[in-house]
Amino acid sequence: MTRPATRGGSRASADRLARLLNLVPYLLARPGIELAEAAGDLGVTERQLREDLELLWVCGLPGYGPGDLIDMAFDGDRVTITYDAGIDRPLRLTPDEALALVVALRMLAETPGVTNREAVERALAKIEHAAGDLVAAPVEVRLPADTRRVAELRAAVESGQALRITYYTAARDETTDRVVDPLRMLMVGGRAYVEAWCRRAEAVRLFRADRIDAVTELDERAAVPPQARPHDLTEGVFRPSPDLPLITLRIGRGERWLTEYYPCERIEAGDGDHWLVSLRVTDLGWARRFVLGLGPDVAVVAPVELAEQVRAAAVAALDAYATPGALPVPPIGPHASRAVPSADPAVPAGTQ
Length: 352
Prior knowledge:
This protein is α+β, with helices and mostly antiparallel strands. The chain has helices at residues 9-28, 35-42, 46-56, 95-110, 117-131, 148-159, 258-261, 284-292, 304-322; strands at residues 33-34, 71-75, 78-83, 161-169, 174-188, 191-198, 203-208, 212-221, 246-251, 264-269, 275-280, 298-302. A hairpin with a 4-residue loop joins strand 6 (191-198) and strand 7.
């Protein structure tokens, strides 16, 4: 019969596992100990101890046959471990395990938004000291977005000073200077962000680290107003809402990846292999650039305004190619690669 699940079951399981791991070396050091005495030392009832011993009988080494499982002998109310299956030996990390643990801890230490980085670094130092020669070569960990700018921003945020930043807003394709009061730094979807109170917008905003071109610490301390609240990012940066513009696209089979990559509100079967896909965006300018960057098997169904903008941009591009010497100069400079649609589904509310 299966026992009903109880609250705190995971905690009880963890406690029992720790107790089982301690039980074998305890009994090895006390052959023939009485169950009542062992239960008292271990802080459990005699009934619980007997249940633990019954469980140990089916634990052991891979193969799990005779000679692989933990074995014990009973003499009345006394118990003796006769085969320990190696549990008497202290846990030692293999080189691969030690390296994996070091890499994981270093990645955690470099992740923006970690609240107690000092604790992570202390744990890392202990592991590296204990591992010794297991980690034969130095290990350097860099997250994809962990550039020099991210390190600079993290230091600026930790300083507690107000910051002046030069920021590129992709939705409007413009660069502005802002004074912000930092709240925190965090990593979402593989990108680093600074969450701060923007004095220009008078609201909490998320600033992508790779779009901050310059940052200067001001002489004044950051002064975050009481009404400022961090964003809930458990479901990602972009949070579709009914008040945002809804666009509908007709996509072919080759563009169905959009439905897995972007948060779609509605997906319907259309003519033939085509689907009608609806999704929310915060800016039709972004949507125009997004559609222009897709293949020829995508067409705008709604709104009409977006369809007209896409058509006008496409016609202007074709006219430019048709006229010798009329091609526009490709964008150059620090924002050349950022002026086209990126993996962001849109510029989310509260994000610059």
